[in-house]
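>> Question from a student workshop board

For tomorrow's exercise we were told to take the sequence and the ligand below, predict the bound structure, and bring the output to class. My setup keeps failing. Could a helper post the expected result so I can at least see what it should look like? The ligand is magnesium ion.
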Amino acid sequence: MSDKQIEFSQKQEEVISLLKHGKLKRINLLEGSVRSGKTWISLVLWAMWVATQPKDASFLMAAKTLTALERNNLNLLSALVGTDNFRFSIASKKAELFGRNIYLEGASDVRAENKIRGLTLCGAYVDELTLIDEDFFVMLLSRLSEPDAKLFATTNPDSPNHWLMTNYIERAECGELDFLRIKFSIEDNPYLSKEYVKSLKNEYTGVFYQRFIKGEWVAAEGVVYPEYADNPQKFLKDKPQDDISFATIGVDFGGNKSAHAFVCLGFTKGFRRCVVLDEFYLKEQISPERLCNEFVAFCRRQKERYRVYEAYCDNAETTLIRGLSNAVINCGLAIDVKKAKKTKIIDRIRFINALIASNRFEVLKGCCNVNDALCQAVWDSSEQCDVRLDDGYRNVDSLDALEYAAEPYMKEMMSVS
Ligand SMILES: Nc1ncnc2c1ncn2[C@@H]1O[C@H](COP(=O)(O)OP(=O)(O)OP(=O)(O)O)[C@@H](O)[C@H]1O
Ligand SMILES: [Mg+2]
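>> Workshop helper replied:
Here is what the output should look like for this input. Compare the format with yours to find the bug.
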């Protein structure tokens, strides 16, 4: 460990004492509330354990992406144990921890499983396990073939239908697996200020509060935006309350049963509020030419009123995106048409709900489709992961378009309290 004095919370001490007393299992899962100190102690635990393993053994560290792994784990591990003891290279996807060889991997999709085929591992570390594909996890367990091999993982709770719960945690509870589950709560972390914990708690409502603050594995059920659906009048405005400093456009392309939807979303000064300013919604099969014409007309209308330079489109449709981009360029409109980021749906929904809860979200009265969509959205609890019910009758397209427009500035909006 580094020369700096390292302090542990009481909960973290418990984790280290499991290591010291040889009570770790084959799978060791640290789970619970956000910011509760799981990742921090998991890295200390991992480093202490790896240091006791054979010098010629191989190890793996993974997260959803290599970027996330570097940001959340590798930099911290290096600060904790010192750069003499831990070195890494993202380019070569390799690291060395106390002289042991560590592979680094991002496990963002089903194909990730191929990346670790054939390895023989003595230990693995996975941050944010529920974000990883089950096939990768199954492959990883099969690669942990050395005697006494161990896996260390952290996660926040998810749906009770998530593969990690149904195929592992529940089976572990019945004693079927060599599995240790250590639960963390936000109160277990004394290193957070009271004000920070308070503002964090205000950020989450409903199912998100239960999962991310209380650390419970609960299903997302019922209405998706309960506070909005209870009283839409509170959020519907004739005009924006504050000046719009700039706006973005979100585009969801229609298919067989779905509609074409555009949403223009305004951001007020200092990222105080988001305002749904205008919308386009058409549920019929139209030619690509017609779609381009409608888009150009929509962009022109927004350009006349707001500073808008970017449009974010459903990224499944590359040819359509190129078509829209050419159409606006040909009409002399300075709008950069690009692929939407498409972050996890649960994060996008949580974001809109956080704005609603803090009264930072408005919809202009003309935007009936967005309003109806927000009121009608319900969770599809039959799915393994969190999705809105898309039964062909409910409008999820306006919500997708709204989220694509919001996504690029979610971080800026959330950093304003
Ligand atoms: N022993 C410690 N000493 C100093 N700071 C700590 C300690 N443990 C945790 N922290 C700090 O508390 C914060 C939250 O810790 P950490 O990132 O480990 O939480 P987490 O449970 O992994 O959160 P999330 O679920 O959001 O990923 C971090 O800023 C971390 O630096
Ligand atoms: Mg973490």
